[in-house]
Design brief:
Order of helices and strands: EEEHHHHHH
Helix content: 40-55%
Radius of gyration: 18 Å
Strand content: 5-15%
Strand order of the largest sheet: 1-2-3
Length: about 180
């Protein structure tokens, strides 16, 4: 995961998931209050690829554009109604401050199947954490650069534990202050 300097006052990062020695899934992500024109995303990805992989030829086989609501506001997440159970974003399985959802959605589905109760409620600490990060990203871009820059100093397991809300609040704060 590469965090990029903020541009246009918004947090940007790229992650690369290698699929084979010569093939990868690359995602260019922008976290901000406004939507970019589609060509701005393509330009951002192109700039990243030419800077990071200078001289390497590549072919984009598929493009995708998606938007994830980044909010901790009540009402965005739905409760199960009768035989209907929500998954993913509507169930609150997407981490509001980062958009991370991969393992969280899998665990949410497993719990739903096991309990038939609907998704588990999130702790107040993580809601406050997400709300704080969202607020900083929308009002203080230098601070969000600093906060996301901390991920560079964490090990992969620490980042994944944080994204999956598996750390305890004191571990999360201690890890942040040590970096």
């Amino acid at each position: 995961m590469d965090f990029l300097p903020t541009e246009y006052g918004e947090v940007q990062f790229v992650y690369v998931l290698p699929l084979a020695p010569n093939r990868a899934l690359i995602e260019f992500t922008v976290i901000g209050a406004s939507l970019w024109q589609e060509e701005h995303y393509a330009k951002g990805l192109s700039c990243y690829l030419s800077d990071r992989y200078e001289g390497v030829s590549y072919r984009i086989q598929h493009r995708e554009l998606g938007r994830i609501p980044m909010s901790v506001l009540p009402g965005l997440h739905n409760k199960a109604k009768g035989a209907l159970s929500y998954l993913g974003t509507p169930a609150g399985a997407v981490k509001a401050s980062t958009g991370y959802a991969f393992l969280r959605i899998q665990e949410s589905v497993e719990k739903l199947i096991a309990s038939n109760d609907g998704p588990e409620k999130r702790s107040g600490f993580w809601l406050i954490c997400d709300a704080t990060l969202l607020r900083l990203m929308s009002t203080n871009f230098l601070m969000s650069d600093y906060l996301f820059g901390l991920f560079k100093h964490w090990g992969v397991s620490t980042v994944l534990d944080f994204l999956n809300e598996k750390t305890r609040w004191w571990e999360t704060l201690a890890t942040r202050t040590r970096s």
